[in-house]
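Input/output pair, single chain:
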Amino acid sequence: MLFNKMNKFFLLAALLFAASANAQVDFDEIEVEVLKVRDNIFMLVGSGGNITVQVGDEGVLIIDTQYAQLSDKILAKIGELSDKPLRYIINTHHHGDHVGGNATLKAAGFTPSGGNVGGDLGDAGEGARILAHENVLLHMAADEAVSTDMWPTMTYFTEKKDIYFNGEGIRVLHQPDAHTDGDSIIFFRKSDVITSGDAYITSFYPYIDMPSGGTLQGFIDAANSIIDLIIPVYGQDGGTLVIPGHGRLSDIGDVLNWREMLTIIRDRIYDMKDRGMSLEEVLAARPTRDYDPRWAGEGIFSTENFVTAAYMTLD
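Output:
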């Protein structure tokens, strides 16, 4: 019964956060900034999740689309990076700050005859193709507020999906039960760049979307998946770069610190829960107190929400 109540609480919190985010942001005042990450990989920062852009002779591939209200600005920035058509969009998960611009950006793109991702043929001129894990499609299809032109046009249901585009192997890896049950991280093998979506962020405590299958352990597993792909230059510096769902460009040291924080808090909460402490007692004990100055946010990113979801998703 308590779990069902908490599920409803977190679902309501997510809906209120999405509504308030759109209400409070003056999109006319938002500037979309571009950071060159490496080679032909760029990071676009505006409002919502970070966007990854890969450009090359075959066209443009992007990861996530932020909010619909920023689509014109995003397209303008992409146009500054390449005069080639937008061919493919990858969604890391289904939340509106990462897929809100799907319809507009898809319509602005173009799939040439015989265009392919991992052997899947596209119909000429249908717009850019949208790839995501099948759970992303299921979540979007279940939401009446999400129009069908925002839905992924191709999905995968296995552990990974391989793409070869612009002369580079790209591996899309499912991260089950982290931020949601449909998370993907994307590894650009030649450029040595990873895009994590909200499975890794640098801004606040993670939002564990319990109604969508998110768990604290899933976040730790995703951090381990990212770290396994990273090769540093020396120690914990340089090498493979990571574009987070929100926040700054990272390397292995940043992701190791994130994993350490999540793991220590998990172990503290698990120990308290194993000793029979209630959720209210765990909250009062403040198991995150030494991390709060760095990671505590507001709303769904607050310490209370994070500890509550961690408690509820630990067996």
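The chain has one domain: 25-252. The first strand starts at residue 33 and ends at 38.
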